[in-house]
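Summary of Year 1 activities. Much of the first year was spent building the evaluation harness for sequence design. The harness presents a backbone, in tokenized form, and records the residue chosen at every position. We chose the following record to illustrate the format because it has been used consistently in internal testing since the harness was completed.
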């Protein structure tokens, strides 16, 4: 029989070594110590000695649920339809192109600055139209002024007209490319009011010869329909025929021809229905 040498201590088993590490030198369980267990030991059941004071407990990793941020309002996505229906709201202190548009339609100096005179004119206009006299130009005031530049739901005008006016707009397309002639009122050449009077005469409506007189003769409307007249200046120095989609047909000036172009410019002063 073979005996182990007395001077050699018994080799501790792997399980006993791990338990000894966990319990410390004096058999007390270590608390608050996170031990990394090698991957090679995973799945091995370790038997704790009978004299171990406390058996180490497996700690299940805590699952942290996402915490919703408090006090933060999530911005809802804006649809294309909502974006297209928006208008620029002007207030005291605003500057730029759209201020000039408003000033032109209110028949005041167009300096592009929403100052005291513009504020006063806006409030007076709102009072005449039965709107809230808040001095800001929002959707309702834009509609009363003839529509937000660019059309859309801001009030840029209907795409359809009625009866003879719609026919006049259709007839006007026949004269695209005719040269501008001062005083002209026939297909040999047109000036602005010569074109409008010639076109409307073909649908049985008589218009005065000048843009100024036409502006005074027709019924003023706040939002144009196809076949309405578009006036520049007050009294008017230029006139065109609204053909829908924010476009008009007009005879612009010497050196140019009858063409179709956007009507929304700062100088547009009013719309009229023959």
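For this record, the design step produced the sequence shown next.
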């Amino acid at each position: 029989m073979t005996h182990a040498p007395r001077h050699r201590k018994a080799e501790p088993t792997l399980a006993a070594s791990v338990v000894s590490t966990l319990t410390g030198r004096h058999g007390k369980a270590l608390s608050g110590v996170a031990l990394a267990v090698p991957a090679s030991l995973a799945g091995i059941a370790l038997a704790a000695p009978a004299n171990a004071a406390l058996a180490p407990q497996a700690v299940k990793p805590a699952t942290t649920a996402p915490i919703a941020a408090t006090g933060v309002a999530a911005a809802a996505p804006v649809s294309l339809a909502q974006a297209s229906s928006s208008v620029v709201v002007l207030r005291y202190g605003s500057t730029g192109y759209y201020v000039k548009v408003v000033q032109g339609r209110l028949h005041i100096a167009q300096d592009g600055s929403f100052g005291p005179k513009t504020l006063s004119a806006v409030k007076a206009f709102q009072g005449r139209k039965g709107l809230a006299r808040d001095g800001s130009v929002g959707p309702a005031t834009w509609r009363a002024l003839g529509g937000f530049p660019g059309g859309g739901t801001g009030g840029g005008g209907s795409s359809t007209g009625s009866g003879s006016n719609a026919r006049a707009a259709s007839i006007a397309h026949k004269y695209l490319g005719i040269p501008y002639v001062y005083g002209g009122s026939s297909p040999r050449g047109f000036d602005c009011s010569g074109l409008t009077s010639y076109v409307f005469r073909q649908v049985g409506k008589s218009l005065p010869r000048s843009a100024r007189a036409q502006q005074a003769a027709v019924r003023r409307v706040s939002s144009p329909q196809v076949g309405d007249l578009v006036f520049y200046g007050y009294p008017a120095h230029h006139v065109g025929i609204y053909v829908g989609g924010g476009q008009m047909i007009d005879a612009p000036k010497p050196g140019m021809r009858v063409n179709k172009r956007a009507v929304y410019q700062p100088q547009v002063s009013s719309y009229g229905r023959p």
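Residues 93 and 114 are 5 Å apart (CA to CA). Quantitative recovery figures across the full test set are reported in Table 2.
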